[in-house]
Design brief:
Elements lengths: L3 E2 L10 H7 L1 H4 L13 H18 L6 E4 L2 H15 L6 E5 L4 H11 L4 E5 L9 H7 L4 E5 L13 H10 L3 E5 L11 H4 L3 E5 L10 E5 L14 H4 L7 H16 L1 H22 L3 E3 L10 E6 L4 H10 L2 E2 L15 H5 L4 H4 L2 E5 L6 H21 L1 H5 L3
Helix pairs in contact: 1-10, 3-10, 4-5, 11-15, 12-15
Length: 389
């Protein structure tokens, strides 16, 4: 049976070049980077190289990159660290209703500890209106956190404009770029970003390693306490193989960025066009103009996304019903809800994301199977019969 993976926004396979770069750091170059003896020098040098590679991906300097256990920790650190450092200045945070739960749940925690949070609405395409951010900023606002690309519908936010508004009011600006790094061009200096979160396993690197960019001069408290790693900012023995893998993945993502964007956007557009040409009552969620190059989030009326997913899986096709982090929950997607999509349509939604290993043949096979699955499910659906299917 043919195997087709269309969930690259959930995670990506580790590329061979990345694995090859990592392997020596498991068995050959294994010295603790914090040790003083000479065999640890190679470990220190490897981390320094990787830090520069990750910095290069987003236009930062190596001293502004701090390695974490992943994007979730980076998000937590950004919010917890800034609010702690600036608690004497104010206690107000601004974010959006469509953030990843790593942001939303951290905001909920901070609300329980005396902070006020404004959750901005988005329009029907999942975009934040700059005027809404402007209106929400108060004298006691210390941080704005707005994700660069949404992990479910793939909408790309106007980060430059939003960051400029925050800067004009003297407010720090953080963006969750876990879905964006390696998928769109990022220059943190030119875009006016103060803090940025990213993760290796979204760009064909290993799981369990991420990074937080902190612009030089930004005040942020430590999130992990213990040793003196990461210039005394984030304690814990470094994940040496993971860091090396992240660095290599970032280097490759930077070098191949335009080819990656062209490949993914072409196949994504082809996927959407073929589905729309062969099925009725199908809707694309989010902006097609400002979008993750590989993301196709689509609603199929009258049927359940879970049923589609299971039937597709029986044919070797891996997709998602929304965010991989919440796909086990029966609660309607908070992102699709924020876009104003009715609950009955939300439950008929699939997220399909293509990547570097996806081929046109994969798309043709997926569309062939999906059309049969949707028609079969609609044929037996009571809702479909009411609609004349």
């Amino acid at each position: 049976m043919r195997q087709v993976y269309l969930d690259y926004s959930a995670t990506t396979p580790v590329k061979k070049e990345v694995l090859d770069a990592m392997l020596p750091y498991f068995t050959e170059v294994y010295g603790n980077p914090s040790s003083l003896y000479s065999i640890s020098d190679a470990s220190k040098e490897a981390i320094a190289t990787a830090r520069g590679q990750v910095a290069e991906l987003i236009g930062a300097t190596d001293k502004e990159i701090f390695f974490t256990s992943g994007g979730t920790e980076a998000d937590n650190w950004a919010l917890m660290g800034v609010t702690d450092a600036l608690k004497n200045k104010g206690n107000h945070i601004i974010t959006t209703k469509i953030e990843h739960h790593a942001i939303l749940h951290t905001c909920e925690f901070l609300e329980k500890h005396g902070f006020e949070v404004t959750y901005l609405d988005v329009n029907a395409e999942g975009m934040v209106e700059p005027a809404a951010l402007e209106a929400a900023i108060r004298d006691n606002t210390v941080l704005v956190s707005i994700m660069m690309i949404n992990n479910e519908v793939g909408t790309l936010q106007p980060i430059r404009e939003l960051a400029a508004i925050a800067k004009a009011h003297g407010v720090l600006f953080h963006t969750d770029a876990v879905q964006a790094a390696g998928n769109v061009e990022i220059d943190v200096k030119e875009m006016g970003i103060d803090l940025l979160s990213m993760s290796a396993h979204k760009i064909y690197g290993p799981k369990g390693i991420g990074a937080l960019y902190v612009r030089r001069g930004v005040r942020i408290s430590n999130y992990m306490h213990g040793g003196a790693q990461e210039t005394r900012k984030r304690a814990g023995t470094e994940n040496l193989p993971g860091i090396v893998g992240f660095g290599k993945a970032a280097e490759m993502a930077k070098a191949n960025l335009q080819a990656h964007i062209d490949h993914c956007s072409s196949l994504r557009n082809y996927l959407v066009e073929q589905i729309m040409a062969n099925l009725e009552d199908v809707h694309v969620n989010g902006s097609m103009e400002y979008r993750h190059p590989g993301n196709a989030n689509m609603t199929f009326e009258y049927i359940e996304g879970e049923a589609m997913l299971l039937y597709l899986d029986m044919h070797g096709i891996s997709v998602s019903t929304g965010s991989a982090c919440s796909s086990k929950s029966l609660t309607p997607s908070h992102v699709l809800t924020a876009l104003g999509i009715p609950v009955e349509r939300i439950h008929g939604t699939l997220r399909m994301t293509v990547g570097d290993m996806t081929t046109k043949e994969d798309i043709d096979y997926t569309v062939e199977v999906l059309v049969k699955v949707v028609n079969k499910l609609r044929e037996i659906s009571s809702v479909s019969k009411e609609k004349g299917w």
